[in-house]
Design brief:
With 267 residues, the chain is an alpha+beta fold. It folds into 3 domains: 65 residues, lambda repressor-like DNA-binding domains (434 Repressor (Amino-terminal Domain)); 128 residues, Umud Fragment, subunit A (Ribbon), CATH 2.10.109.10; 26 residues. The chain is 37% helix and 20% strand. It has a 9-stranded mixed beta sheet. The longest helix has 27 residues.
């Protein structure tokens, strides 16, 4: 049980003294010290008071070693996104850190997608993914990069590496946000979202390529969401002017062919 070390750790992390906490919880400082050093075990009433005071679920205080969590995981819990507190499918994200205790950006290649679909919540699997850093991204957020396939999100090309920031609370997504979404059935998909989670418990997903129709995705099918930040590709996007010129020339040629056919039919 991690209760004693956890309350000591989180108290110091938040810059509070034993006197501060003891007064707030209406207990003796010696009693608090006994809890922190695992000399005494709290009853249910004390557990509830600690949980309410730190806004951390009792199960988390008891079962999770907070000192082993990364900075972003701790911030998730402190912001109220505690899997036990929320009573939902929100979870602590599996991640990796470097020797400097800063978080890495993990790479999920096309070949790794199948494994990621089943291993996304497994710290051991996440640990074997290639990692890198981008100095211009915030250290206060969690990022991951996925290789996309297909042409449904053109002009972002097939094979591009798309980086997203982890979305803990899905209801904060705005319409027209582009996201990488991990689903139970479809695996990893990259789409523009229309957020209907609050009213209908679903997302409507749109492609940038108009050849692909939108489709619906129920919230229960979603495993993770990463909001688009940028993409990296070795392909240079086509010049829209050149593309339009090509289309115009194609239409002209078609008109000429039709006129030639009509001329022959009139002879």
């Amino acid at each position: 049980m991690y209760f004693g070390p956890n309350i000591k750790f989180i108290r110091k992390r938040q810059g509070r003294t034993q006197d501060d906490v003891a007064v707030a919880l209406e207990m003796k400082r010696s009693t608090l010290s006994g809890y922190e050093n695992s000399i005494a075990q709290p009853g249910m009433d004390a557990l509830i008071r600690f949980s309410n005071y730190f806004n951390i679920a009792i199960d988390t205080l008891i079962k999770v070693d907070l000192q082993k969590l990364t900075e972003s995981q701790l911030r998730q819990i402190e912001r109220g996104f505690d899997v036990y507190m929320k009573g939902s499918n929100l979870r602590i994200l599996a991640t990796t850190i470097g020797k400097d205790n800063e978080e890495n950006i993990e790479l999920v290649s096309e070949k790794a997608k199948a494994g990621y679909t089943s291993g996304f919540a497994d710290p051991e699997y996440i640990r074997i993914l290639p990692t890198f850093r981008l100095p211009f991204l915030s250290k206060q957020k969690k990022y991951r990069t996925f290789q996309i396939s297909g042409d449904s999100m053109l002009p972002i090309p097939h094979g591009a590496w798309v980086t997203g920031v982890f979305v803990q609370d899905w209801e904060t997504l705005r319409d027209k946000d582009a996201c990488i979404i991990l689903t139970g059935e479809e695996g990893i998909i990259f789409k523009v979202v229309e957020n209907r989670l609050h009213s209908e418990s679903k997302l409507v997903l749109h492609s940038l390529n108009p050849m692909y129709p939108p489709f619906e995705l129920m919230a229960k099918e979603i495993r993770e969401i990463w909001q688009f930040v940028h993409y990296i590709s070795s392909d240079i996007p086509e010049n829209p002017t050149a593309v339009n010129y090509h289309l115009v020339e194609t239409v002209k040629q078609l008109k000429q062919d039709i006129q030639a056919i009509q001329t022959k039919l009139n002879l």
